[in-house]
Every structure is written in structure tokens, then in C-alpha cells.
Amino acid sequence: MEYRYKLGFIGAGNMAKAIVNGIVNSSILSKNEIIMSNTHSNGTYNDIKMVTDNDEVLQNSEYIILAIKPQIFKSISNTFKNSNAKCVISIMAGINIDKIQSIFTNAKIVRVMPNTPSSIGYGMSCITNNIDDSKIVDFVGKVFNSIGKICYLKEEQFDAVTSISGSGPAYAYYFINSMINAGIEGGLSKEDSTLLTLQTIIGSCKMVENSDEEILVLLDKVCSKGGTTIQAINSFREDDLEGKIKDGIKKCRLRSKELSKE
Question: What is the pLDDT of residues 84-102, one digit of tens each?
Fold first, then answer.
């Protein structure tokens, strides 16, 4: 079958736009090979055709990315049965491959969990699928490599993925904000405290990424007995900060499992 578009998006929110920008900026596809549906307006996004009719996307796209909220999918999925797509890629949380396959019976299904830093090209996307078509796997990999890094995991691991990389940016923002506020309380201006905090977090991440040493070894190298750093670390340990972080992430993971059953 000949397709009018290589890739179509159902939904045109922030994540869809981030993926489109990555694809175009990486020259994976030209703008006229992509179409997007948005129930609110016709026109264009970044010179890419945008329509209000989902059927125009479903019937004319070789690949489709479902970039809508899970609750929206559940309410309108019965309208998707006329799709001609060879492959459907879902970035929806909590909707498993079997549920999507029951709607798109003739398509290959790929499920991806990206995160919000994808909007600036530093995303983390986990991919799982039930297919053995190397061309499809390669194309999906290229699409999500264009907005950051990718990894391939089993679908049963996706609740854990949601609790780490999917929701993880919020944890990082919370900790960063706390550090900035602590600096301000210590007498720094907001501008200076923000600069010091952000560069420290970025540098620390790079140290972990590029070092052969374990994280706890790197931690110990910053701490000296009777020094300043160890006072903060001991306080964190006494308050069981690690346990509280793990508990919060566990609650996030369990909620992800609940959503997949609703």
C-alpha cells in the first residue's frame, strides 16, 4: 500500500511537538512526510499539516504515534478501527500493548515511555514492542533518538520506568528547588543560588556518567571526617531520606499499575 504520509500524530500536545521538532531537526523525515491531528484547529505546526479529522491521519499514515491522554484514548478508541497504519506507536502511560492491539488489529504495536526533557533534546525514552521487523524497530529508534537517549525494556518493567524516568524530572525539580531555597536562606541571592545549584547538579551527573567508580565512592570523596559535607549527609541518613525517596517512587510505581487496570 502507498501512503501519503510516513508518520502521523494523533494528538498535537507538547510531547508530540517535541518529537516532531526532533525528527525535523535530525532530518529523519521532511515536513511534508508528517501530518498531525488536533481537534481544536486546522492549519500547520512548524509548516507541518495539522487537521481536525483523526481519520485523515489514520487512513493515510504508514506510522502513527498516539500522543493523547490515556483517558481520551479510552473514550474515542472505537473510532480508530479504520486505520491503515503498518505500525502504531503509543506514548500513553498505563495502556498496554494488548489493549492497543485489540483496536489496531492489523498493525504492529510499539510502546514508548518518553519524558519531558525530550522537549530540549535531553529526553529518556524506553521502548518495548511485540514485533520482529527490523525496519520498524530501526525507524522507531531513530525517531526517539532524535529527542535524547533510548533503551529497550520488557513491557512488564514499564511501571518501574514510569516511576524513574517518566516521573523522575519532578523529583529532580523538587530537590533542585530545595537546594536553591537553602542557599537563599544561607544569604545567597536567588540568581547566585540557582547558578551554583544547577551547575553542581549538572557536574555531578557528568561525574557519575563518566566515572568508573561507584556513586558511593564518589560521595565519600566529597566527605571528609569532621568536615562540612558529612554533616549534611549524616542528617540525610538519620532522617532516612533514601527510604523516603524509595517509598515515594514505590507509590508512583503502584499508581502506574493501577492505571493500567482501569
Answer: 999 999 999 889 999 999 9
Reduced to 3 states (helix: H, G, I; strand: E, B; else coil), residue 253 is helix
- The pLDDT value recorded for residue 45 is 87
* pLDDT for res 130: 78
For the chain, the straight-line distance linking the first and the last C-alpha, in angstroms and rounded, comes to: 36
Distance of CA 197 to the CA centre of its chain: 24
In this structure, what is the dihedral angle of CA atoms 142, 72, 169, 262, given to the nearest 10 degrees? Answer: -110
SS3 62: strand
- Give strand ranges (E) for the chain: 5-10, 34-37, 43-45, 48-51, 61-66, 87-90, 108-113, 123-129, 148-152
User: Three-class SS of residue 66?
Assistant: strand
pLDDT at 156: 94
Cell, residue 102: 485489540
Alpha-carbon span 97 to 91, nearest angstrom: 11
Cβ atoms of 38 and 14 within 8 Å: the answer is no
Q: Where are the alpha helices (DSSP H) in 61-167?
A: 70-76, 97-103, 134-145, 158-161
Residue 40's identity, in one-letter code, is H
For residue range 31-64, list pLDDT tens digits in order. 999 999 987 767 788 899 999 999 999 999 999 9
- DSSP-derived pairing of the beta strands 87-90 and 61-66: parallel
- According to the model, what pLDDT value does residue 77 have? 87
Instruction: Determine the Cα–Cα distance for residues 41 and 223; give it in Å rounded to an integer.
Output: 56
